[in-house]
């Protein structure tokens, strides 16, 4: 370890685990975007809050930027370290610290996987309802940093609704305890919500107190085949009117094609242009009858061409795999991803305009659509064709994203629904935020991170 800065760090924090091998630098220095070449100074793996504070103080003394790191499953370049930063991995801080049965809260360290949080809540007869496909590898700290949403936002909301309290090490090394798990707290600014979704630019989340809730009622899963794009919101309205929806997820025939190639089972003999997988409460005969009534009404109106309802947990898992397996099935194509949102009421007009825009912009590309239609969130994946260079592909997609940002601005939407801004969406932040808002955000960062060392270059340039 020849770098004098790292020698000073090891002296300041003798028990700190440091990694500097090239393979480790590459592994920890990137996220799922795979667009930037990792080039971190080193990887620090603290085991306590005190070690995190000591690392941040060292960083201020030596003016070394820090990239907080969780599971690195992000899709916006928020965890990329490509410019000599120190990656601060929280993977060793992965324990459940406390369960409070009266408050129905679970206090955890930031490096714990989302799936482990689910399991810990289940052990106490409760649930942590935020859920998405990367549950086995994403960390709770990362999901807080991006205010992650997922497949059940339609019923439970985003991560923000389930964080009762946080501990944050600021960019200057101070430890803040935010909200203390209170349900009511009107004593000034709620800095907890400022941290949620801040993408590691204000500090390092070192502890989280999460709200838990009762398990949902028994549910069932239905897969629907749709004949056209313009009936999508009509089907959603028909099901939402009759059922207590847990999820309502949409994907195209191209998405299904890639998931089937990745090993999933084909649900229908025929191929249809659009699909919906929906989960809904079905604990009694009345609810089951309501589900069939919704399906039959859609069939009679010509909005649905075919459908299948799960008859077992195993079949429900197979149907969900058709939606949850999409991202993994596309990974080898290095897709350019857009993750956008609009109000549900604005979705029909936005979908129509966006479909036309993408059809004109990407006639030669394989474009895979899917998303959480029930909460206004759409994912657009453009697959890189063989023979197209990385730089050329990104430039073409960036031009279309600029147009997409203008469309979102007209419809009052957001260029990032749940993946964060990071590096990927930074050029398009002005489609979502005004100059005045960005100026205020920069000012907030200067207060909590006076030397600009926390995940610099992400979200916006200082």
TrEMBL record:
Highest taxon of source: Bacteria
Example of a GO biological process term: respiratory electron transport chain
GO MF, one example: FAD binding
All copies of domain FAD-binding PCMH-type, residue ranges: 36-215
A Pfam family that the UniProt record links to this protein: FAD-oxidase_C
Cofactor(s) required for function per UniProt: FAD
Keywords: FAD, Flavoprotein, Oxidoreductase
UniProt feature coiled coil, ranges: none
Keyword Flavoprotein: yes
Protein family (similarity comment): Belongs to the FAD-binding oxidoreductase/transferase type 4 family.
Record protein name field: FAD/FMN-containing dehydrogenase
Lineage: Bacteria, Pseudomonadati, Pseudomonadota, Gammaproteobacteria, Lysobacterales
């Amino acid at each position: 370890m020849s770098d004098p800065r790292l020698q000073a760090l090891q002296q300041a924090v003798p028990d700190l685990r440091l990694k500097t091998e090239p393979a480790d630098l590459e592994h920890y220095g990137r996220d799922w975007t795979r667009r930037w070449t990792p080039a971190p100074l080193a990887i620090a793996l603290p085991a306590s809050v005190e070690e995190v504070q000591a690392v941040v103080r060292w960083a201020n003394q030596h003016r070394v930027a820090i990239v907080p790191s969780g599971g690195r499953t992000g899709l916006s370049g928020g965890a990329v370290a490509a410019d000599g930063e120190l990656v601060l991995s929280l993977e060793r801080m992965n324990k459940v610290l406390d369960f409070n049965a009266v408050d129905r809260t679970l206090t955890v360290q930031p490096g714990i996987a989302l799936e482990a949080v689910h399991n810990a809540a289940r052990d106490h007869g409760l649930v942590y309802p935020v859920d998405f496909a990367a549950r086995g590898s994403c960390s709770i700290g990362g999901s807080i940093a991006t205010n992650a949403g997922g497949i059940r936002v339609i019923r439970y909301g985003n991560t923000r609704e389930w964080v009762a309290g946080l501990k944050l090490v600021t960019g200057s090394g101070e430890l803040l305890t935010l909200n203390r798990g209170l349900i009511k707290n009107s004593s000034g600014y709620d800095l907890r919500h400022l941290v949620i979704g801040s993408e590691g630019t204000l500090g390092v989340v070192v502890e989280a107190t999460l709200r838990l809730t009762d398990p949902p009622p028994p549910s069932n899963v239905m897969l629907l085949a749709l004949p056209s794009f313009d009936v999508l919101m009509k089907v959603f309205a028909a099901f939402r009117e009759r059922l207590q929806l847990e999820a309502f997820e949409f994907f195209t025939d191209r998405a299904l094609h890639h998931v089937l190639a990745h090993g999933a089972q084909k649900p229908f003999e025929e191929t249809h242009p659009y699909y919906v997988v929906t989960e809904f409460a079905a604990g009694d005969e009345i609810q089951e009858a309501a589900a069939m009534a919704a399906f039959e009404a859609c069939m009679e109106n010509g909005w649905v061409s075919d459908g299948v309802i799960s008859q077992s947990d195993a079949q429900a898992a197979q149907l969900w795999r058709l939606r949850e397996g999409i991202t993994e099935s596309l990974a080898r194509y290095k897709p350019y991803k857009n993750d956008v949102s609009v109000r549900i009421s604005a979705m029909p007009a936005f979908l129509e305009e966006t479909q036309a825009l993408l059809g004109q912009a990407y006639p030669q590309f394989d474009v895979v659509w899917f998303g959480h239609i029930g909460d206004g969130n759409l994912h657009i994946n453009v697959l890189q064709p063989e023979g197209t260079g990385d730089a050329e592909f990104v430039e073409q997609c960036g031009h279309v994203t600029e147009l997409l940002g203008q469309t979102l601005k007209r419809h009052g939407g957001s260029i990032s629904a749940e993946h964060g801004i990071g590096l990927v969406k930074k050029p398009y932040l002005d489609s979502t935020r005004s100059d005045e808002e960005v100026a205020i955000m920069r000012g907030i960062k200067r207060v909590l991170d006076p030397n600009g060392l926390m995940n610099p270059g992400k979200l916006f340039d200082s």
